[in-house]
Amino acid sequence: MKWINLLAGFAIGFTAAYAIKQNRSSLSSNEALDIVKQAFKQNGTIDGSWIHTTTKILQKHGMVFEGFNGGIIRTVNNEQEHFEFFIDQKSGAILELNKL
Hints:
100 residues, 2 helices
């Protein structure tokens, strides 16, 4: 019986650690916005940015992603450019980028 209790305790501990790790691997909206800002700063100054703090579901190419919508305004060659984006909450990848 002691081995069964030991194995059960190990399984419960492993499951709890895995669940905690999965929760920490998701980006907050502020972390997601920082990723997008860093990508845009390479090609010009950022004049403004925004992001929704609640997640949205995006279905693309038969796959489902959960992430954040937001926008960036930057200046390139003295002209403002407006963009909207969708960033994946788990990977931090920018999955959609549309110039307005």
